[in-house]
Amino acid sequence: PRVKGLNGYDYYLYQGFFYAPFFLEGLMAVQECFNPQSTDIFVASCPKTGTTWLKALTFAIFTRSRLSGSTTSSLLAKMPHDCVPLLEYDLAQNPSNRDLAIPLVSTHVPYSCLPKSIISSSCKIIYICRDAKDAFVSLWYFLARLQMSKNVEPLPLEEAFELFCNGIANFGPYWDHVLGYWRASLEFPEKILFLTYEEMKKDTAAHAKKLAEFMGCSFTLEEEEGGEVQKIISMCSFEKLSNLEVNKNGKHRLDTPIAIQNSFYFRKGEIGDWANHLTPEMGARLDDIMERKLKGSGLKLPR
Ligand code: A3P
Complex ipTM above 0.90? Predict the structure, then answer.
């Protein structure tokens, strides 16, 4: 089945989730034949929930311990999305589209649709999610900027909101995406680390340490005392990354079917910006949907 999507593409419903055609093609390819390295770490998320930040942090944390000295130069020169390849696009096109010395791969694929090879191997998954209202507003702006860069009128916000509330978004329904990883994280806590954007914002240092520990490259006492954690947090902050030349307008992310400017991945980086764009009624409606969908799961997303 096909439905009208949010950005000029039809979305296809496949195994309970919606996909733009190029992502569905990529997903089917990796479901068939992707083999992770047993040491791989997957950065998983629904789009617009903090993927870019988490990629930057995991990349910086990993490279600081194994490839000393190259962290800063890499993140200064390369967009976080070009440091960590996307399973259903970059690796679907060519499995060798990665640097094997860096065991990081990202994915937006819902847990239940991941290639079985990932589930059954010993590789780890770090999942990030976010308040649904902020995720929706972030998504709408991202798609609107993308459409406008192609001189196409964006879908009105109200229309996009209606679709989102009906579960229609790339890799949506949003709540099912979150629930899939949440339940799996309860079942396999050593394999899956479940994070929220809001908690990461509140205490980034504690989360950077938690990430390092989960990834198997904890900060040493000397590193902590030497300010390494703070250095990484600052390097990966919204202010720092969004002001880097490589992340500003004009630089296009490599390899995507739709040319995406790097700057589109950096908008405000704040919690609660939804209130500047949605009416209180729209906010209450999405809260109500999320509450009903998450009921009984034990998960309460911070707002
Ligand atoms: P907003 O649109 O609310 O500003 P993703 O990376 O999953 O595409 O999510 C994009 C969202 O993360 C955007 O949110 C973007 O501004 C925010 N973001 C990008 N880099 C960030 C960073 N280093 N720290 C915090 N938020 C960041």
Answer: yes
In the chain, % of residues over pLDDT 90 = 79
Residue 254 clears pLDDT 60, i.e. is over it: no
Q: pTM of whole model > 0.90?
A: yes
Task: Write the CA distances from 256 to 85, 88, 141, 241, 260, integer angstroms.
Answer: 11, 11, 18, 21, 7
Angle at which helix 280-294 crosses helix 174-187, to 10 degrees, equals 40
User: Is 108 among the residues known to form the active site?
Assistant: yes
Atom of ligand 1 nearest to the CA of 49: 7
Closest CA to 55 of 284, 211, 248: 211
How far is the centre of ligand 1, averaged over its atoms, from the C-alpha of 86 (Å)? 17
What is the helix (H) or strand (E) element at residue 19, kind and residue range?
Answer: strand 17-19
Residue 22 in tokens: 């190029």
Both tokens of 301, joined, read 């997303």
pLDDT at 66: 57
